[in-house]
Design a protein that fits this description.
mainly alpha, 3 strands, single chain, globular, about 350 residues
Length: about 350
């Protein structure tokens, strides 16, 4: 048989993932496997061939692009906090955010709107003031186009004024993730205490499980009468009807955070948060001490250094008790809490003799 290397287009992410997964169970090539598979057969394939194998490795093979538009910057910061995430967000340096305004929670008091409006008015005023000042100070280079000159100065003005944008400012982002990462992301957002994120999680899930995706080929067929007969062939259905299935709120995360909050309230009571701003480098620490400090840091408004000072005085047994809280509610398929995923592990593999 001759070597064959080729790319594939025209199949949905889920069908492509099942086609790739068949390499481990079939001698067929990907092209032949995709011919055999259909949207109706994918769930049957999972249940018959991979019910014991586990779906996560297959979910790693299905990648989808999702747009999240008009969400708050605060929500966006939480959405993108995934180790295996690729995407892009609107830039506060290059775009005028006064057009998209801000997110208002349903229960927000009138004072919330007053403060947000004030922040946006100041942002807009400062943008114009700074840009006008730059125009007065910096002449346009002779080799620069007029629109490029003003675009550059406006970006520099945004660089100053954007600090007036509140975290409620609406932004947009796009992401490309595997179905496995998407499952974990949805579950994490479902478990978050911020109501906006819970709603966003439901909408992300519906976008891949419950409804037809935005399909540019289908839009083209709708606009061209000669392509109408192809419409049914171009409809894909939901992109991940079987692979994005484990998306319920994560009880491990919820209960662990609650337990850690109770410990933090006890250990850190009476300590005033630091008011000094700046970046600190914390050099190597004992892994147990760092793990406990990081866990408490995630549920406190104290600085890392303040919490570390308290943790360093605890006996080893007490530190282990606190660390155990991060695993007490962990199920078989739950990942470690985010705060425990950054400690380096050093391993060696001895050579065979």
């Amino acid at each position: 048989m001759e070597r064959k290397i080729y790319s594939i287009v025209g199949s949905t992410p889920e069908v492509a993932a099942y086609g790739l997964a068949k390499y481990s169970r079939s001698s067929l090539g990907l092209h032949e496997s995709l011919r055999e598979l259909s949207a109706q057969k994918t769930e049957e394939f999972l249940n018959t061939f991979y019910f014991q194998y586990g779906h996560s490795s297959i979910a790693d093979l299905a990648h989808v692009a999702i747009a999240l538009e008009q969400i708050s910057i605060w929500a966006a910061m939480v959405v993108v906090d995934e180790p295996l995430w690729d995407g892009q967000e609107r830039s506060t340096r290059y775009q005028d955010f006064k057009k998209t305004k801000y997110y208002t929670p349903p229960t927000a008091p009138a004072r919330y709107v007053e403060l947000a409006d004030h922040a946006f008015a100041t942002y807009d005023r400062l943008t114009h003031l700074v840009k006008d000042a730059y125009v007065q100070k910096y002449d346009k280079p002779s080799d620069m186009a007029e629109d490029a000159y003003h675009r550059t100065l406006r970006a520099r003005a945004f660089d100053v004024s954007r600090y007036w944008l509140p975290l409620s400012t609406n932004t947009s982002l796009g992401q490309i993730t595997s179905a496995r990462t998407l499952e974990r992301q949805i579950s994490r957002l479902m478990s978050h205490e911020l109501p906006e994120l819970q709603v966003i999680a439901e909408e992300i899930k519906d976008s891949v499980v419950g409804r037809e995706p935005v399909n540019l080929q289908l839009e083209k067929a709708d606009q061209d009468e000669s392509l109408h007969p192809l419409r049914s062939l171009l409809q894909t259905g939901p992109l991940l009807p079987t692979l994005a299935k484990y998306t319920s709120p994560n009880t491990h995360q919820i209960h662990s955070k609650q337990a850690l909050q109770r410990v933090a309230a006890e250990l850190l009571a009476g300590i005033e948060p630091e008011t000094e701003f700046g970046v600190r480098l914390h050099t190597y620490q004992d892994p147990l001490r760092h793990a406990v400090t990081a866990l408490l840091y995630s549920v406190s408004n104290l600085s890392y250094a303040q919490i570390d000072a308290v943790v360093s005085d605890l006996c080893s047994a007490r530190k282990k008790e606190i660390l155990d809280l991060a695993f007490e509610h962990r199920g078989r398929h739950d990942a470690w809490l985010r705060e425990l995923q950054a400690q380096p592990l050093r391993t060696s593999v001895p050579s065979a003799t």
